[in-house]
Amino acid sequence: MIGVRIKQLREQKGYSLTKLAKEAQISKSYLSNLERQTNTNPSLSVLSKIATALDVTTNELIEPSSPKEDGHEPLLKETPHKKVRKADLLEFQQFMQSRKHQRRNTSD
Questions:
Q1: pTM score, two decimals?
Q2: Scanning 24, 69, 70, 95, which has its CA 20 to 30 A from the CA of 11?
């Protein structure tokens, strides 16, 4: 699910595990565990770092563009027991957009 999506986006970007881990400022072993799905519950902070490093939104990271793209329904639909308010998700998405914008400005 999330690990498959991270690996898919990493490979599309042409990043090795080492490069993405360095860009996201997380350990290579932690990233490998995510991709191999031995760790299936990363924090929002980790997801944010990975999304930023891959130059995608967190939403793009956790949900395929089409539910059939990887054979799974979007992640948020698979975890109905998690109570996340829409306002919280919108706030987090705005935060990620601002970080993405800041990162582009500092790299120019």
A1: 0.59
A2: 95
